[in-house]
């Protein structure tokens, strides 16, 4: 198992898999995209989208079906959380399906208190879109 940052040459594979699950394509302009490999094959992807210098969204976590059950998502999210820590971001958002709440809590993510927390407008708009367009409930978490 290995993790490395995606390059422009990797974008075709990345976006092909994001398309399969209905995720927005990556372009590397305001993102850090990480690739997980397993036995020298692409096994998964995840990304950090920078909203501005103090805030980002961690997401786009996808493990190719044949590689699921190998704890690759754990390694990937841990890697991405470390990347956000290196940048000293004030806030990192995550919009997972509700069934993944416990998974993300292991990495320090917590639910927003909508009465007390200020939320980035782009993230709030995306959260509303997700809730309207996905069959599963989507949470709004912060690191």
UniProtKB/TrEMBL annotation:
CDD domains registered for this protein in UniProt: NAT_SF (cd04301)
Protein name per the record: GNAT family N-acetyltransferase
Occurrences of domain N-acetyltransferase (ranges): 1-130
Source superkingdom: Bacteria
Transmembrane region(s): none
Lineage: Bacteria, Bacillati, Bacillota, Bacilli, Bacillales
Stored Gene3D superfamilies: 3.40.630.30
Organism: Metabacillus rhizolycopersici
